[in-house]
Design goal:
The complex is a heterodimer. Chain A is α+β, with helices and mostly antiparallel strands. Helices cover 24% and strands 37% of the residues of chain A. Chain A is elongated. The chains are: A alpha+beta, B mainly alpha.
Chain lengths: 347, 287
Amino acid sequence: MDIRIENLTKAYGDFKAVDNMNLTVGDGQLVGLLGPSGCGKSTTLFMLAGLTEATTGRIFFGDKEVTKVAPEDRGIGLVFQNYALYPHMTVEDNIMFPLINRKVRKDAARQQAYEMAKLVQIENLLKRKPSELSGGQQQRVAIARALVKKPEVLLLDEPLSNLDAKLRVETREEIRRIQQEVGITTIFVTHDQEEAMSISDQIAVMKSGVVQQFDVPQSMYLNPCNRFVATFLGTPEINIIDVEVLGGTIKCGDVVLRTGVDVKNGTYKAGIRPESFTHRENDHKYSVNSVRMIGRDLLLHLDMAGRDVRAITHSGQSITTGDTVEFSVRESSIILFGSDDKVIGKF
Amino acid sequence: MKSTKVSNLVLDILKFTILILGAIITMMPFVWMILSSLKTSSEITAIPPTFFPKDPQWSNYQEAWSRAPFLRYFVNTVIVAVGSTFGVLITTVLSAFAFSRLNFPGKKLIFSLLMATLMIPGEMLVITNYITVYNMKLEIGETRIMGIDSYGALIIPWIASVFYIYLLTQFFMQVPDAIYLAAKVDKCSDWKFMWKIMLPMNKQAVVTIGILNFISSWNAFMWPLLVTNDPNMRVLSNGLTQFQSEAGSDYQLIMAASCILVMPIIIIYLFLRKYIIEGVTRSGLKG
């Protein structure tokens, strides 16, 4: 089922948590709502769930408007950040609970709960209490409980934030697998850009209640629409430097970064991703301020006309602090931002 | 290494000495009550007092039992204690749920007013309650429901406790919002949420409140004495007054009757010890 959000606003007094949001999510898609804390992503999710009332705007599931529909009648499954399992019930009773409330017969409910448990691979834990499970297992129970009533939309609020780093990677793949297997339209909230990029079909990046960009992960990374999106995506963070354009030449201090560009003269902010630096003989010489090993790559801090910039190069090379390296910036990977922080172009 | 062992031992000895002292101080009145209940009337007032009775008078129990209709008192006490505890649990759970989960106009005001009543000393309420009960005579056929000498008078003033409401509200408020919202999405009504999730999640607190209320109702003395004239409507604790006369008190019989009185409570305690201890330690409350 596709989801359509039209001019959705949630205001608390003068403060707009979500400001005139428009978004269309296709059937069976996995969409990540990504943004820093307080950007309105969870508010959006709770409005989709019906637990928070929208101030203005409309929400459609398929052709049906659900803006005023009660949460239990929207056909949604909701997974909370801290899972919100009922601590006094066994895993089985937890998963059966939505069915029992919908007057499903007990043996049928038990059967469906078992099938769901099997899907999320916890069928051997059915008789345990939530307190006897690990965080990852509790997460699976919560997903099974959300899916057991066969909802049309699955909503996940920060599903991975309570898990440790290794489990997080595992569980996000698991969420993707389950979502694909069930084929359910899913929206999840996260503040972790890597998490969002790795499993989403599309990402909506939010800031101060406004969707900045809605796109597939790769094109959002390569073609951010503004400085916020460019900065928010990617680790290590993109370098933002002051540059000057004069007669088609982009210069940072005395470092010539690009020539022959068609941009009006003036000063700009430029974004260069650390991995855009590439070794080239006889190009500008940068002195290396520090070197850090981050696994497969080396993270270098270079001196660019007195400014510190991050560059990534593969770890096979022997570069130490104080060395000089000859680097150029790859084609069309200097992103110029206008005074309104919107992207002017890539050079 | 060795010195820490020694200091640990000293610490242990100190710790247990204090615990044993505490236990003796707490136990002493009980032990004294039991021992005194087996003494003769001359031995109990003897100076210097004896600790152990020279010749245990088991007949004291028989005499105490026969002096007053204790069986009747016992039945009355059970009816009153069970009735008021049942009432307290229902009113407490319902209002705690309302105060912790539901939103209605004037919620804060009503809660503050209830809390304010905690400031009123119980002795002051006794008089107004007595007048209310006295004026509220209600009979259905032969049975008196309300008014002097009725079970209603013994039970109804005690079926709501602001303190327990306050206590349980705090427990209910600790249940995370997410659980409530999850239940909402799972098509669980407020009513069902209260019984199926809120109550089981706070089972210990509810059981503790029930037990504490039962004990205080069992031990109530002044109120039952005030609102009953008919010996048939009296409760166990009132029976103790039977042994006081103008000629003096039969202390050994009072002690024997007291032993009879506390027996059921001790038995209940032994059975529900686990709940009481957990409930009391978790709520920071003492009985």
